[in-house]
């Protein structure tokens, strides 16, 4: 089981198919703010419920294809 308290700023975030989708900006309640590769420099909010593993990086239950809006 993942430990949400182990999520810290600057951790890389990966989709379920091992695609890097961004970097943790901060955790706010049940929301994870990411700095993404979109170039707009605005943090993107995703639900912590999508997190399935924290092992030095954050792994999400969603595939890269379902998260295309984070990286395009």
TrEMBL record:
Top-level division of the source organism's lineage: Bacteria
Name of the protein this chain belongs to: DUF2171 domain-containing protein
Classification lineage: Bacteria, Pseudomonadati, Pseudomonadota, Alphaproteobacteria, Hyphomicrobiales
Originating species: Microvirga aerilata
């Amino acid at each position: 089981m993942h430990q949400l308290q182990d999520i810290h700023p600057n951790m890389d975030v990966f989709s379920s198919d091992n695609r890097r989708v961004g970097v943790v900006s901060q955790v706010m309640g049940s929301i994870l703010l990411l700095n993404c590769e979109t170039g707009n420099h605005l943090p993107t909010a995703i639900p912590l419920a999508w997190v399935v593993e924290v092992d030095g990086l954050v792994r999400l239950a969603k595939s890269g294809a379902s998260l295309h809006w984070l990286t395009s």
